[in-house]
Design a protein that fits this description.
mainly alpha, single chain
Length: 158
């Protein structure tokens, strides 16, 4: 007997609505979820149209929520935020709009706080190794390289 459940359009819509109601999703995540549920591709398109028209799915809202969350909680910089949104097939226009909600002063103060806190926690005697660890940490989090290298040289003497 076949162990796969085949969803009617109505069931697929209900599942997708609750999936989107739980947290903001992008089109790519919902499409993947429906694909994993073995929903046929013609039904997937119908479900997506339904979700968009009933405001369960909104990529602009998703991008803004994503940027706000990852910036405030994980302290990610613009480089990482942009890369992660691109990976989810979010348009350049929406990415730019979402990133613009972070004020420049908030962005820079978060960066300086994060860099100073991390620099204090690196228990490394060699200034070169300490610089490398701090730079790697900040670059991984997606902060712009010119900010990172200026700050690293600022915090750790030559």
């Amino acid at each position: 007997m076949d162990s796969h459940k085949y969803y009617t359009l109505k069931e697929a819509i209900q599942k997708a609505e609750s999936y989107c109601a739980y947290q903001e999703r992008c089109h790519k995540e919902v499409r993947q979820k429906l694909f994993n549920m073995k929903v046929s591709s013609d039904k997937i398109d119908s479900v997506l149209v339904h979700l968009i028209s009933h405001n369960f799915l909104n990529e602009e809202r998703f991008a803004e929520t994503y940027v706000r969350g990852k910036f405030n909680i994980k302290k990610w910089g613009r480089v990482r935020l942009t890369a992660e949104l691109r990976r989810r097939d979010i348009s350049k226009f929406i990415i730019t709009k979402a990133l613009s909600q972070i004020s420049e002063s908030s962005y820079l103060s978060t960066f300086h706080e994060l860099a100073e806190k991390k620099a204090e926690s690196i228990g490394e005697a060699s200034p070169i190794k300490k610089k490398r660890k701090l730079a790697d940490y900040l670059l991984y989090r997606g902060w712009e390289s010119h900010l990172v290298f200026d700050k690293v040289n600022d915090l750790i003497g030559k």
